[in-house]
């Protein structure tokens, strides 16, 4: 799709977005393909043209997927939606959730016969907004209940069938968050490996652009001009939703999951309505799933060393080191302080903090 003019600053983008906001509010299910030309554009990180919609930045392709999910998706009460900002623990969460939910059919102790030995977690748990869709959205209907899906879509842009209910008919949402500093560094390394592949796809976001320097990418991330950004607003929406409806929203922290993977897995399974029995715990099922889904195990599997998954991306691109505090190896103290300050100001009064929990539990 052709650009409608020169890229603009984030501030100008906000002003232009407000000019079309009334039409969006009047019809929240408007066809995004029709209004996309009127949305403000700006360069972003990754190096794609981004459009601002609903307070967040998206590629053209992603906006089309969001529009399609609004048109086609019909939630079920047993649905579990794994939500996250990109590069915050999505792959690990998918592996854990799939293994816990399907442990009766696929025990973690079966070794090479387990689906995770033959498939990427992204093939086993498909993204809501990236699923192939026909005119009736039947692809979603063909998935047996309980359905396990994933999304990077901000909470406010999810289909209303998910967010507009208070009786549980829209299913449950699990959200994982991560310190923005580590998120950015992971984002950077991931897109060093994948941008060339993604830019070969039509509609990824306009003409190809050179990969920005680390410093340039950092500036764009700080301005919120990243795919699904800004991260802190993305996380805040899900945080607030989980506090409003704790029975329908589980908020996890990547740092907590690393500190206590077994406890986090048990909390996740209980929330998904498939709690571990005392007998399973005694038999080591929790331990076996944690080991099966560990970064070391998944990274070493043949399917993740040589295979490819959604959008033609190589599976190995989704696995690096998964540690906490890796930002200190790439980012100066001044850069870290700046990003921390931006996040703190944006979250002021919300009681949400990033990093390991304890301070903001209800």
TrEMBL record:
Any one of the GO BP annotations: sulfation
Residue ranges occupied by any Sulfotransferase domain in the UniProt entry: 77-350
Keywords: Transferase
Keyword Transferase: yes
Keyword Transferase: yes
Matching InterPro entries: P-loop_NTPase, Sulfotransferase_dom
GO molecular function: sulfotransferase activity
Gene3D superfamilies: P-loop containing nucleotide triphosphate hydrolases
One GO cellular component term: cytoplasm
UniProt EC number: 2.8.2.-
Pfam families tied to this protein: Sulfotransfer_1 (PF00685)
Family to which the UniProt record says this protein belongs: Belongs to the sulfotransferase 1 family.
Protein name from the UniProt record: Sulfotransferase
Source species: Triticum aestivum
